[in-house]
Amino acid sequence: MDEQRMRAALEAYRQYKDTKEPEQAEPAGQCVRVNLLGELPGYKVEPTAYPLRLSDGSVDELRACGCLQRYSHTQTGMVLHDWARVLKPGGVLKVSVPDFGHAAQAFLDQAPGVDVQSEVMGRQWDELDFHRSIWSDGTLEEALKGSGLIDVKPWLPGVVDDAAAPGRLNLQGTKPHLVATQQADAETEPDAVFEPVVVGGRVSPAGGFERVREQLAAAGVEKAQPQVDLTPWRERCRSIKAIMTAPRLGFLDNIFCIYQGLVPLGIDVYKNHGVFWGQCLTKLFETVLRDAEYILTLDYDTVFRCADIMELIRLMDAHPEADAIVPMEVKRENMTGLFTVLEDPADPASLPRANITLGELQPELLRVASAHFGCTLFRAAALRKMERPWFLPQPDPQGRWEAGHVDEDIWFWKQLAKTGGRCYLATRMAVGHMQLMVTWPNKLLNGVLHQHISRWEQDGKPHDAWAGVAINQEEKKAA
Length: 479
Prior knowledge:
By secondary structure, the chain is an alpha/beta fold. Helices cover 28% and strands 21% of the residues. The chain contains 14 helices and 21 strands.
């Protein structure tokens, strides 16, 4: 959906919310469970799936079976955000949709008894019974997380209904106790300046939150102050510290990630800068190691959300065998993952593998030998066992930095493995890797071309970039 249509849809929804009749409030303390479009024992029926005629934060459990696929793939994000809107903090959204992979396999296998047409396109008994989006386990999980939900996992239907039918994807997500902040206004002044509160290399949420919020407002970035349930999150995060090395001049986007993702959780951030990355990171680890339970490392060119940090904490709490957990992150130029999987994960001397299968990404954690430090959660107890130096680059046997050398980050992961430390990839979440891009006008001046900086340095200007108006030989002579 383009921006104009999206704005029109949002405006129509705002007008609807302003004119709808107020809801009767449920008795205090009562568990409110709602099922969309159908009767279900123990559930209140909501006859309209979108937009919901329910108040914000009013529902403990919302069940949506066979609904989401009826909306256009350009609209499902808005539908899920509306469903998440009505959940109370800690409330659960349960979604069931047809599994496109199941239908596709049945079609290829010519499986008897499977109505592939109806599974993919809908039964089409009336104008509403059409499917306008298709879903896999991965796309549904991503969409639920994109609506701000956490702890996304399968759920089992307790009654016989559409969710219990063969070939169904049943995933649920939980609304965090943190209410998501508003997005920055798209028309923010381009030259607005944001200066974080930094004292002695430490960004202090406790002492600087109000000033940070004031600076954001002064810069034209209007954001609602996050509302935090102090019991489950701020108290939990007291023993978690974040550290990052940063250039003296760099991206501001990461600072806004810290404001949106760490400040509401009460996680203090410690920074250091300098050209000796390993030394800086070692000093930061040593600064917080004594008092920390978990340590979160950040790169200045990684972007993340508060829900990502919550998910890392949840995973670390749920998996005592893990000493480090990293989200999926890839190189700037291609789909090469910033992690290494060995042929034998239990043997640090085994060879790294060139690729992994999708089947290996089904569990929520995958054992890896090395990874990035962009948004990585460490168990402090494992770091205390490691031998120093933690970061030590090693040249190849000829004293050169060619094949066979060891980078300082790889040295770190080898040191962790020596003491029995284990690193895992969080297979169901990803963080972004920022980069600079070059934008060129195309040959027809009706669009633009985007090019990686590294590709421009290697190849120069794209072949399809604008190079002036072509002039034939006769026109040249006349000129």
